């Protein structure tokens, strides 16, 4: 179990859910976790370097297009309904957060999402647990703070047919990334681990970001 960032798909749990959700459609498994970059710090160096190449970019884009056409052939609605039904069952680990991940994956694919589903997802966000600071892996359920705004912003600006890249740098306060802003958010100059679209957003987020704002040379990381 590990977490190498606080946004969507930057923790093992999100990636695990994505993998499990792919099997939701029986007989026609969707390769959903392959749409998410494998940035895990435990991945071998060669693998991490490969994910940065143009060669991989082509493979990824082709894969995303395939998933989109699968979802848009009618499978998408069926998939979303199934995930919703499963989340209602008692003892489902991660509960309704799985629906959030399903929505994020549909946006990642650039699939058509019914307006009522977008509305449903927006209403679901406040009901999901959101950790604002450090959490032990066992307590690391639901969103982390920048992941929540990232998800909400993606919903608000979603255009079907345009895959949403959740890995692009996004503001830790408002969740916007370059596609929304027209310019790339800037890195926190102290820790290099957070991005902001403006000084206004950076100031508003400071109280929350302060404990995690550790210069790289003082950082001790342990991926467990
Ligand atoms: Zn911002
Ligand atoms: Zn910082």
Keywords:
45% helix; 224 residues; binds zinc ion; 2 domains
Tell me what you see in this structure.
This is MYND-type domain-containing protein. Keywords: Metal-binding, Zinc, Zinc-finger. With 224 residues, this protein is mainly alpha-helical. It contains eight helices and four strands; from the N terminus they run αααααββααββα. Helix 1 crosses helix 4 and helix 3 packs antiparallel against helix 4. The protein is globular, with a radius of gyration of 17 Å. The mean pLDDT is 89. Bound molecules: zinc ion (2 copies). The site of one zinc ion has 8 residues, from loops.
Outline the secondary-structure elements:
Blueprint: H1 12-21, H2 45-50, H3 54-88, H4 97-109, H5 115-124, E1 130-131, E2 143-144, H6 145-156, H7 178-181, E3 186-187, E4 195-196, H8 199-209
Parallel strand pairs: 1-2
Antiparallel strand pairs: 3-4
The string of secondary-structure elements, in order, is HHHHHEEHHEEH
Bound molecules: zinc ion
The number of helical segments is 8
The percentage of residues in β strands lies in under 5%
Number of strands: 4
Query: What fraction, in percent, of the residue positions are helical?
Result: 40-55%
End-to-end gap: 5 Å
Uncertain runs? none
Rg, Cα atoms, Å = 17 Å
Q: How many structurally independent domains?
A: 2
Mean pLDDT: 89
Instruction: Kindly report the spatial arrangement of strands forming the biggest sheet.
Output: 1-2
Largest sheet: 2 strands, parallel
Shape: globular
Structural class determined from secondary elements: mainly alpha
């Amino acid at each position: 179990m590990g977490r190498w960032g606080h946004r969507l798909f930057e923790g093992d749990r999100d990636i695990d859910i994505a993998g499990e959700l792919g099997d939701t459609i029986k007989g026609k498994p969707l390769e959903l976790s392959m749409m998410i970059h494998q940035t895990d710090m435990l991945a071998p160096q060669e693998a991490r370097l490969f994910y940065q190449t143009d060669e991989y970019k082509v493979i990824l884009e082709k894969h995303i297009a395939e998933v989109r056409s699968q979802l848009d052939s009618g499978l998408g609605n069926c998939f979303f309904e199934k995930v919703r039904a499963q989340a209602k069952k008692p003892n489902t680990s991660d509960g309704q957060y799985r629906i959030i991940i399903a929505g994020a994956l549909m946006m990642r694919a650039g699939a058509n999402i019914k307006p009522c589903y977008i509305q449903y997802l927006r209403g679901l966000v406040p009901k999901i647990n959101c950790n604002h600071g450090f959490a032990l892996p066992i307590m690391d359920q639901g969103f982390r703070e920048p992941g929540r705004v990232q998800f909400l912003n993606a919903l608000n600006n979603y255009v079907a047919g345009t895959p949403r890249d959740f890995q692009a740098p996004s503001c830790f306060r408002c969740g916007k990334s370059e596609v929304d802003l027209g310019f790339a958010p800037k890195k926190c100059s102290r820790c290099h681990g957070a991005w902001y679209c403006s000084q206004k957003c950076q100031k508003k987020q400071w109280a929350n970001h302060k404990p995690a704002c550790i210069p790289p040379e003082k950082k001790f990381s342990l991926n467990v």
